Structure formats: C-alpha cells, structure tokens
Amino acid sequence: MAILKTRDARKQDSAELDKKVRELRLEVAKEKANIAIGAPVSSPGKMREMKKTIARILTVKRENAS
Fold first, then answer.
1. How far apart (Å, rounded) are the C-alpha atoms in residues 10 and 6?
2. The dihedral of CA 6, 9, 14, 19: what is its sign?
3. In 3-state terms, what secondary structure has residue 2?
4. Burial class (CB in 10 A: 0-12, 13-18, 19+), 49
5. Could you tell me which residues come within 8 angstroms of residue 37 by beta carbon, excluding any fewer than 6 positions away?
6. Rounded to an integer, what distance in angstroms lies between the CA atom of residue 56 and that of residue 66?
7. Which domains does the chain possess?
8. pLDDT one-digit tens code per residue, 27-46
9. Angle (deg, nearest 10), helices 44-65 and 14-36
10. Which of 25, 32, 56, 62 has the highest local Cβ count within 10 Å?
11. pTM flag (> 0.90)
12. Which of 45, 3, 1 is nearest to 24 (CA)?
C-alpha cells in the first residue's frame, strides 16, 4: 500500500520529490486537523503510510546529496 516505493523515488529528480513531500505533509496536516475537531478517521493506516512515505523520500534525498 506504499504511496511511493523507494525504487520509484530513486528514479525521480529532487524537484519532484520536494513536491511530493509538500503534498504529503499537507495531507497529514489536514488529517490531524480533522482528528482535532472530532471528525471520524477515514483510514487510520493511511496516516501511518503517509508518514512512512515522507521518511522514505527524505532518506532518498539524503542518499543523493552525498
């Protein structure tokens, strides 16, 4: 259920990865806001997967930087 797999992230350039991280962080923020106002969680696993995908992308970016 990975939103972006590691091998796919390695194929993308830095600008695309930055854009994907911004989108995912915005989506995580929206989910947190919905939880804070008491809305039911649409998919509990989705939040976890978004966080893991952000970590994957940042890891690939750090690998490419060195």
1. 6
2. negative
3. coil
4. middle
5. none
6. 16
7. 6-65 (1.10.287.310)
8. 999 999 998 999 888 788 99
9. 150
10. 56
11. no
12. 3
